[in-house]
Amino acid sequence: MTTNGTGRQHEPGWYEIRLQGRLDPRWAASFDGMTLAAGTDGTTVVSGRVVDQAALHGLLSRLHGLGLPLISVARVDTDPAKHTPRTPDQPTPGD
C-alpha cells in the first residue's frame, strides 16, 4: 500500500473504465488480467483489480495510447464476492 500527501492509503480496488469505441478482446493480455467487454452502444468496458493509484495511472496511460476516448473511470465495490460486473450498456455509478 502507498500513501498520498494527506496520509490516506491507496488500497487495491476494482475499477471499471469505459471507452468510446471497440477494443478487441486480444488486448486483454496487455492489461494485466483486466477483462474487456464490448457493449452494443459502441463502447468497451475494461474492468478488474488495480493494486494502487500508480497502477491505475499506468493503466490509463496505456489506454490513452490506444487513441480511444475515455468516457468514465469508476471504482466499484472492492469485495469480489459482492461484485457483479456490469455490461457495457449499464451506466457507471454517478452517470
Q: Could you characterize the architecture of this molecule?
A:
This protein is α+β, with helices and mostly antiparallel strands and 95 residues long. Helix content is 14%, strand content 33%. It has a domain at 12-76: 2-Layer Sandwich (Alpha-Beta Plaits), CATH 3.30.70. The chain has one helix spanning 53-65; strands at 2-3, 9-10, 13-20, 35-38, 43-50, 70-76. The strands form 2 sheets. It has a 4-stranded antiparallel beta sheet with strand order 4-5-3-6, with helices on one face. The chain has a two-stranded antiparallel sheet with strand order 1-2. The termini are far apart.
The order of strands across the largest sheet is 4-5-3-6
Identify the CATH architecture of the domain at 12-76: 2-Layer Sandwich
CATH topology group of the domain at 12-76: Alpha-Beta Plaits
Helix-strand pattern: EEEEEHE
* Morphology: globular
Quickly give the structural class. Answer: alpha+beta
First-to-last CA distance: 29 Å
Q: Segments where pLDDT lies below 50 for 5+ residues?
A: none
Please state the average pLDDT score. Answer: 80
Rg over CA atoms, rounded to whole Å, is 13 Å
Helix content: 10-25%
The CATH C-level class name of the domain at 12-76: Alpha Beta
Strands, total number: 6
Count of DSSP-assigned helices? 1
Main sheet?
Answer: 4 strands, antiparallel
